[in-house]
Amino acid sequence: MPRPPGHGPDFEVRRQKIIDTAAALFARQGYAATSINDLGRAVGLAKGALYYYIGSKENLLIEIQSRVMDPLLSRARQIAALDADPLVRLRLLSESLLTIIFRRLDHIWVYEHDYRSLTGDYLQTLLGQRAEFEQLVRGLLTEAMEQGRFRALEPRLATLQFLNLHNHTYQWVKPDGRWDAAYLSREYCDTLLRGFGAPGAALPDVEQEAEAFKRDRPGLPLDPEAEWRPASLAG
Predict the structure, then answer these.
(1) Cα angle vertex 177, ends 172, 181, to 5°?
(2) Burial class (CB in 10 A: 0-12, 13-18, 19+), 222
């Protein structure tokens, strides 16, 4: 959604709070069952003022999606560009994805359940964001196959296996439970890498290398919503 001109950081902070409130309402009540008046009451704005911030109710679905996908895509591109084994980059990307799932459960719920309510350009925007992330995952999987790390797999099916294992986590995970994003990423990737591994191929110690990355480069956090400090991506 184009931003109205001439607005400073206070406008954007308020707009993001409205988006987060809408995500919580839609997750609890459903997109179709939540009216603009419901949202206005929740954020303390009349309908006209609310539209000033969000444009339309349908646009809110894109904004909720982008609240997750904009930082996730940015981080995924940076991870994919690292000079590291593709299996290690898959592990880092896995943890990054799970980190934002833990933090934005309402947004993920709305994204997965209500995107079919979108039409036209709104739907194409959402599908484009999803497709770009899937392509980054597929690229790393393909690279691992080309290097002989993974057996010959149908790249689309391998990508779906990676995504299905991660994307349904929102349905049951408890952010304050005993499993955090790093733990689940270790378990998921152990299952995936062993299953995808080429017969007789020696897999790297992915966990050791992932831990070394996090320890040695604190300026490059896996959290998609944290800023990467300027630094060389070579490693």
Answers:
(1) 75
(2) buried
Which ranges in the chain belong to alpha helices (H)? 9-29, 36-43, 47-54, 57-80, 86-103, 105-114, 120-146, 155-167, 181-196, 206-216
What pTM was estimated for this model as a whole? Answer: 0.88
- How would residue 3 be classed by pLDDT, with cut points 50, 70 and 90? very low
Q: Cβ atoms within 10 A of the Cβ of 64, count? A: 27
Amino acid at 92: L
pLDDT tens-digit series, residues 122-167: 889 888 999 999 999 999 999 999 999 999 999 999 999 999 999 9
Neighbours of 5 (CB within 10 A): 5
Distances (CA, A) of 13 to 2, 19, 59, 131, 235: 16, 10, 17, 28, 36
Report yes or no: 159 and 135 within 8 Å, Cβ to Cβ: no
Long-range contacts made by residues 120-123, C-beta under 8 angstroms, separation at least 24? Answer: 122/58, 122/59, 122/61, 122/62
Hey, what amino acid is at 212? A
Alpha-carbon distances of 8 from 4, 5, 40, rounded to whole Å: 10, 9, 22
**For residue 148, what are its two tokens?**
């002989």
Instruction: Find where tokens 């996090």 sit.
Output: 214
Q: Of 186, 140, 176, which is closest to residue 159 (Cα–Cα)?
A: 140
